[in-house]
Amino acid sequence: MNTQGSRRFRWTRLSILVLAAMAMAWLALLLLVQPSNQREWSPDQAQLATAEIDGDSLTIRNVRNARYHSTSQYVVFWEQRHYDLKRLDSVWFVVEPFSDWRGPAHTFLSFGFDDGQYLAISVEIRKELGESFSPWLGLLRQFELTYTVGDERDLIGLRAIHRRDPVHLYPMRASAEHRRALLLDMLQRANALAAQPEFYNTLTNTCTSNIVDHIEKIAPGSMPFSLKTLLPAYADDLAFDLGLIDTALPREQYREAYRIDDLAIAHGDGEGFSAAIRARMSR
After folding, report:
1. pTM for this one?
2. pLDDT digit string (tens) for 50-76?
3. Residue 125 belongs to a domain
4. CB 73 within 8 A of CB 214
5. CA 93, CA 239: separation in Å to the nearest integer?
6. Taking Cα atoms as reference points, which of 260, 283, 273, 258 lies closest to residue 116?
């Protein structure tokens, strides 16, 4: 190797070492960032839900029941609600695609009681004032994780009526034992996050990955690994293929049959919302 080539090689190697050192230093600084529950939060995520279970009696504090004028104008009500776990009779899987290409989506669960009450639980980033979701920042320990527990008129109505996103609402197959275990496991996780915050991660700690973890915890082996959990708009296909959606419809028909944003828009977010969005469930 001539002198010029040797010098070029040394400079290239030095540049690679410097860049590697800078990347390692940046990663070390990133790992020093700690999650916190003490920040200036967006009003719709200012409170954390917590639950108390006493036998069949369930009390949840900070159930969100916001009233929306638009996606940015709303009044938030934080409520304490009581439920009788003996009356829990259904679980529903909600999928909200929000992109021009099928892949990105938000997913969450709602639990129904035979007295007409529904309780939705949505795993989300906990936004600070002025923040909005970014999948790239979600990889960099920039968002805390939160379990938003709320009324369906809030969590589903926001997405269907005000964001005008397509929303699919699927009845799930689950035994009474599994319904109860799933609800309580999610609420125990909400309690844990109120005590010890965690960071959201776009790949490993998301809305869908947490639902998968909860289902796998109560029914080990029921949720095989699938790339569809990384593209949540396909999560309903995965649930369908696993027999988790309670439907006799064929694969090419079920998604459209359980799309309910038109019903939500037609009804509005007043009383009777949960019954209205299920008006076609007999199909």
Report:
1. 0.89
2. 999 999 999 999 999 999 999 999 999
3. yes
4. no
5. 9
6. 273
